[in-house]
Amino acid sequence: MASFQGQDIRLDILRKRAFNYRWATLPQDVIPLTAADPDFPVAPVITEAIKEYISSGIFSYGPAEGLLEFREAIAKWYFNTKNVSYSPEYILPVNSAAYGLFVAAEAFLSAGDNALIFEPVDFLFRKSIENAGATVLCSPLNKEDGTIDREHALSIINEKTKVIFICNPNNPLGKTVTKADLIWLGELAIKHNCIIISDEIWADINYDNSFISIASISEDVKKITITITGLSKNFALAGLRIGYMCMADKDIYDKVFVQSKHKSTAHGISSVSQIAGIAALNHAKPWLDEFMVHLHKMKDYSEERLKNYSFLQTNQPNATYLLFPKIIGLNHTSEELWQLILDKCKLALVPGGKQWFEQSSEGHLRICYATSFDILKEAFDRLDTVEKYL
Questions:
Q1: Cα–Cα distance between 214 and 217 in angstroms, integer?
Q2: What is the rounded CA–CA span in Å between residue 366 and residue 36?
Q3: N or C, which terminus of the chain has less Cβ within 10 Å?
Q4: Average of per-residue pLDDT across 37-47
Q5: Which helix (H) or strand (E) holds 136?
Q6: The dihedral of CA 66, 37, 121, 303: what is its sign?
Q7: Interval 352-365: pLDDT, tens
Q8: Would you say domain 59-282 falls under CATH 3.40.640.10?
Q9: Residue 337: count of CB within 10 angstroms of its CB
Q10: What architecture does CATH give domain 6-43+285-383?
Q11: What gap in Å lies between CA 162 and CA 155, rounded to an integer?
C-alpha cells in the first residue's frame, strides 16, 4: 500500500528529473509548489508492467491507431468512472493531452474561424487555437464558484465560432463545471453547429463526486464532443506523455486521426507508454483511491493555513490538487508577489496573469499541494515569513 509520506519522496531523483518549473529547475533551497505534477512515485503495478514489457528487448512500431488493449482499457475506465460509453475504435491515444488539444483545434479550426474558451484557464487552450490560425473568444467564469457568465458568452459567440472549449474540472480554479452549465453548453453548441472539445485531464481528482462529463448529457451532445484527457494528473505519468481522445462520431474521429499524422509515423504515442496506461487503468485504481485520501487531507490542511494570511483569500476548490487564492489588500501584482515569495521565502508558486491563465487570473497565485505533509508544512511555514516584507 502507498503511504504518501515524506519518506516516499525521492528528492535526490526529483532534483535530477522533475523539470517544468519543479525540483530540477530551481535551486536546492527552494520548495516548488508549481507545476501540477505529484512528487510521489507511481503505483508499483505500473512500473512492474513496464519492466515486464521491456524485458524482451523488442521495441517495434505499434499500430497507428494505438494498442487495442489500451483503447479497450480507456473505454472501460470512462464507462465505469464517468458513465460514458465509448467504442474503442473511436478512441485515439496521443502523445499527451496537450497534443490532443492541438490536434483537435487543427482539425476543426482554420484562419477566419474563432473558438470560445472560458477563463481563467490554462494557456494551452489559447495556444492550440492560435496555432490553428483561429481567433480566441474569452468569456469569464465566476472565480468563486466556477459558473459561466452565460449572458457574456451569448454576446460574443457568432457565425464564425466553430469550437467551444471546456476545461472540466477547471485549471486553475479547481472547480467542476455544474450540470446546469454543461446542459446549457451542449444546447449552445448544437444551436451554433459547434464542436465541443472537453479537456477532462483532472476528472479523476474530484472530492465531492460532482464531476460530470459533458458527453454524458445526451447522445446528441456526445456525438459532437471530443473528450481529451490522459494519465498525468491521476496516475503521475506526465513524463510518459500519455493522452487520449475519445469520440462518438466516425466522421469526427476520421478527421482527428488524419490530423494527428499517426499514419505517417511522424507522430504517435510510444508502446511503452501505452503499456503503462493499460496497467494504470486496469490495475492501479486502489493506488489512486489512496492518493485521493492523501490529497483531500492536503487540500484541507492547505486551506486552513491560507486562513492565516490577511493578503490571500482561498477559493475553496472541489477538484484538482490546485489552490488559486486571491491576493487582497496589497498593491502587488501576481508576478510581484510571486517574485517576493520566491526571493524571501524560497518558495516557488505560479503567478496569475495572461501568459499563464488568461487576463482574469491576474491578482491570484496558484499553489499545487500534490506532495507530502512534511514538504507542504515547510512550504507554508516559509510563506508565514513573507508578511514582514509586504
A1: 5
A2: 10
A3: N
A4: 97
A5: strand 135-140
A6: positive
A7: 999 999 999 999 99
A8: yes
A9: 23
A10: Alpha-Beta Complex (3.90)
A11: 16
